[in-house]
Amino acid sequence: MILSSKYQYIFILILLTFSCDLKEDELAPEESFIKVYDVNNFNLDLEPVDIIQTSDSGYVILAKDKDDIPNILETNGQGEIQSIRSTASETGSQYFRPIGELMNIAGSIYFIAMNINLEAVLLEIEPGRIGTRVYSQVYQPLAASKGPGNEILIAGYSSAQGDEIVTEQSTFYVMTPNSSTPKYSYNLRTEDSFTDDLVNSYLNGEANFPFFTGYIGGESSASHYYVNTFYNFNLSTVFLNPTNDPDSQIEGSVIGDNYAGGMKSMLSLGGNDFATAYQHTNDYYFNPLNNIPVGEHNSSLDSGEVKFSEIDNLSEVIIKRVNIGEQDLVIYAAQNRRKQVVLYSYDSSTGSFIGKMTLGNNSPYEAIDFEITNDEGMIILAKTYVADARFGRVALFKLNNDQLSPLIR
Amino acid sequence: MEMTRLTFVTAMFILLCYSPIHGQGKYKNRSQQRQSQFWIGLKGGANLTKANPETRYSIFDRLSGETDQSAMKNYDNYGSLNANFGVVFTYDSPFGLAVSFQPTVQNYTFSYGYEFDWVDDTNTGNTMILNYQHDHFFRYMELPLFLRYQFPLGSSNVKGSTGGVAGKREFIPYIQGGFYYSRLIDAFKTITTSGTDNVTGNQANIQTSEESFGVKNQIMDGSIGWIAGIGAAYDIGNIRVSAEINYKSGINNIASSQNRYSNSNTAMGYYDVFDDFTLQHVEFNLNLLFPLKFITNDSFNAL
């Protein structure tokens, strides 16, 4: 059959139309998924703590149950659970209160928890076993993060009993995975006996304070460390010099408003530049490019901060600097009042706002952690509540690069 | 189960078609029997749909209890009726073969359900069960092309050749097969949530709620498939009425992998994403056809 050229065009057009809507660019299951990890037991709430991608593109999720016992969920690249590991059965000892973050140091994955003596313990997640190292000097660990090189930064708290007086002090330690002796240790006097009660209620889960640690510097060494903790009657961010000389340890601080206001989250962008989130009671203020003179003692709220009324009053704020493609971004993750995960993206060099994105609907989703994945997508760890919002569970969102477009300029 | 039902219906229909013509002799004059004709008409009917999952996907991942939640959707196959309407263009060749093009608006419904349960391990009487029922409504513009064979019948079934429609007979059974391309016009689902809350040991029903969501983005725009069916036509005056039953089977997966998780209402609120699936249908149609060629005398020879 010979068709006239007009009909040939129409025929080809029809064929093209048909083939287009029958086939699409298939998305591989590991590119994008949503998972909610459920247990059908009333008494097994799982609260996510942190997530890290492994070298084989799977994920390790640190979670804790109702009794604050660490659980380690290992998934493959599609988010399917491969194993659930309990520190109790693999180490034969009881550990509690795992604290973020999961740290990849020289290819091994570590996190900090505490033993029954309230001492910090470094746990190493290895295939088939969980290694432990007790940091007996670090009492009541409150926050931990990876420092430069193989350093681990831990904020703690202790009441030192002297001859007649009790000294309440926040502590900060720079540790390493292969030694129980601190590289640097700092004692920061709270000057306030009330902080004992505050730390107790924090460890009991009755109160929440934004304890965190961090550093200014490159990948191998720090020019300053910082810790957000109780110091000098306030919740303050204290800048510390890398030294063990007690007279020159404290460089400066950002002073909070007693215990009702202060830094919620902070990320060093180099020098005196920080991306900050400040919380004062129920109000949140973000500044993606905040110049804080680290050698001075300043109040924490400044005029450059923008109030984010949509952030839920119990939200965590996670700030990370990431590279997506060629772009160097600062991303804030939080929970909004609609109980969704909300991500805000900023240019890291100018601090200008790029875009935002929400995840979740109908059920509550609370941002816990996020990471850029090997395939330039993003994995987002969240807490959700199932069964008419009754039981807390771990939720995972994986987005591919295309789906991140609202956050990219 | 549905296969048995389908086989039974098909068998009954074949019997129905053939019973009046048993023992009838061969027709005498083939030229009266077989002449060409163009028909145009309307069709309408009802269909039943089955969704056939291939690769399963789920958001809920159970770490305890019944762990295999990936196969948790229970599909209700051929469970509810819906309607289809269209137009018919048919060419009857003089050799018993006919070609028919029938653009049709197809409304399909299918459903699946799943259940989540939780139990208090310190008091197993305390349970909580949530049921989710998903009813889907898909509307397609379907473009099927049929090739049909009409069985020859005995002379007693042939009307006089004076006047009327060429090749006119009273009763014409036929078999047909073909392919279709269909394009999605609309798709939505209604999710009904119900459950039982035994948390205190006393049973309380959870308030039943119903929500509807558009899911067109989660479904591929196009679908292709094959059709096989049987039918019979009956001529009343110049009008031809036919009844037929068709089985249709989709060939391509119609769930979009790109947008599988992008409906935040269904995915994040109800932990629901589509499996990769194809659709199968059994449909019944009544056709009303009007001839385009009339002949006024016996010597007229149609194409």
From TrEMBL, chain A:
This is DUF4374 domain-containing protein.
